[in-house]
Amino acid sequence: MTSSQISKKQDLPPTAWAVLGLLSFPGERTGYELKKWADSSLRFFYWSPAISQIYAELRRLEDLGYAASVRSGPEEARAKRRYGITAAGREALSGWASDTADAGPPVLKHGLLLRIWLGHLADPERLRAMVEDHVERTRGELAAVREAMAHAADVPEWAFPVLALRWSERQHLAELELAGALLTDLREAGIRAAGAGRETPAGGARAPRTAARQAGGDAPTQG
Fold first, then answer.
1. Whole-angstrom Cα distance, residue 76 to residue 84?
2. For 54, phi and psi rounded to 5 degrees?
3. What is the chain's mean pLDDT, rounded?
4. How many CB atoms lie within 10 A of CB 59?
5. Helix extents (H) in the chain
6. Long-range contacts of the stretch 75-82 (C-beta < 8 A, 24+)
7. Which of 63, 80, 85, 101 would bridge 72 by S-S if both were Cys, CB 3.0 to 4.6 A apart?
8. Can you give the pTM of this predicted structure?
């Protein structure tokens, strides 16, 4: 391996390792098939890369000698390029998967909670409707996770992916529980807000806020 290849190996992002991981299971696959695999497994606990990302990483992996591809013959109506992992790629992936370095904290970007955080600018009924929509969507995702688990259950090579999917099942169940608690919190917040409105003086002017409540540039919670 050249010094340039070693440098590229050291700079490989998790996306590249994930794509190489998809190739580590038996068989060769096209970029489109890898995308389908990601959509039915990786997306439930990590993310699903765009097809353009997959092809970009496949090119990178080929440059490093971690993946190899073959073009289909004239027997197929449309020419396809299938990719497989090489011995060097499997060795590198095994080393990365076994690395004891900290994998880093999970990254949570919860779009619904961002809107709840801005609830003082929104209609309470609309917020509750958004949470209810989230519950229905999560139930659909949970069903998809369970379908993927059932599909992989009897395949020995997929024993560890099933463990990741089982974790995802628990995570979706926890999300449903959290959403239920959030609906209760929103209901109670609405009651408190209504009570505060009734306490408004007859003239319509609200009492001045205390200095403690007028935090100015301070954060609403202690950092």
1. 19
2. -60, -45
3. 86
4. 12
5. 3-10, 14-23, 31-39, 51-64, 87-97, 111-117, 124-152, 159-198
6. 80/30, 81/30, 81/31, 82/28, 82/29, 82/30
7. 80
8. 0.79
Please state, in angstroms and rounded to a whole number, the distance separating the CA atoms of residues 76 and 201. Answer: 79
CA distances for 160 relative to 71, 99, 103, 119, 152, angstroms: 31, 17, 18, 41, 10
What are the DSSP calls for 46-60, one per residue?
S----HHHHHHHHHH
How far is C-alpha 34 from the geometric centre of its chain's CA atoms?
A: 17
DSSP 118: T
Residue 80 DSSP symbol = -
Is residue 30 within 8 A of residue 83, CB to CB? The reply is yes
- Closest C-alpha among 69, 63, 65, 67 to residue 82: 69
CB contact at 8 A, 66 and 1: no
Residue given tokens 């990741």 in the structure block: 164
> How many Cβ atoms are within 10 Å of 37's Cβ, its own excluded?
19
| Residue 206 one-letter amino acid | R
pLDDT 10s digits, 141-153: 999 999 999 999 9
Task: State how far Cα 175 lies from the chain centre.
Answer: 13
Closest CA to 149 of 56, 68, 44: 44
How is residue 218 written in tokens?
């301070």
Q: How do residues 5-21 score in pLDDT, each as one tens digit?
A: 444 555 799 999 999 99
Comparing 191 with 48, the larger pLDDT belongs to 48
Cα four-point dihedral sign 131, 133, 134, 135: positive
Structure tokens of 55?
A: 């092809």
Under a CB-based contact definition with an 8 Å cutoff, are residues 19 and 12 in contact? Answer: no
